[in-house]
Amino acid sequence: MTRLHIQLLGGFRLDCDYTDVHVVPGARRLLALLALRDSPVPRQVAATLLWPDTTTRRAGACLRSSLWRLVKPSTPLVVVNEDTLTLGPHVEVDFRRACAFAAAPGASPEAVGMLKADLLPGWWQPWVQAERDWWRQARLRALEALSDRFRSCGDHHHAHQAALAAVHADPLRESAHRTLVELHLADGNPAQAVRQYQTYRTQLRAELGMEPSRHIHELVRPLLR
């Protein structure tokens, strides 16, 4: 059986038996769409989403062409029924594994690496943007939960990594900055805690004209005095 793996995090890639396979743009979008969906996608829906700026007839023709031009390994990439399309049952998808981490984040360094990656960066189709918006919020919550779990286990190194990944994903997310401030204080680094607070305060003022909340300010108030 051919090992098939689709990467969506950090950019699209199709591997067949650990070898990168070139995929034409139409087929690439089709595989990405099916990889993002857990249930079968009606052919007409897929054609409309993938080729929204053309007629229904032309979109259907483009879909048939993309299916024909797909690489055809011994393990099927796409299961084609009369009215629906589904990703092959043995195709691995990194995004689905990352979603499992996000749903139940365990204290695993691998989870941090997957959760900090963007979903299909550079793709601006509406069906991608909707998934990207969901993924952004899900991974932020998961990264903060991971940071707390690492910290409770005494692993401050990976706790810092998870919190930093959340800050990089959303530089104005106060809860992530607060986690980093708490970690610096727990590590006995008050100066670094103040710098983290001041960085967040400067960004918040510059972009939104707001001040940090009392909760994060109280952490460093004794040090500021």
TrEMBL record:
This is Bacterial transcriptional activator domain-containing protein. It comes from the Bacteria. SUPFAM superfamilies: TPR-like. It comes from Lentzea aerocolonigenes. Residues 93-224 form the Bacterial transcriptional activator domain.
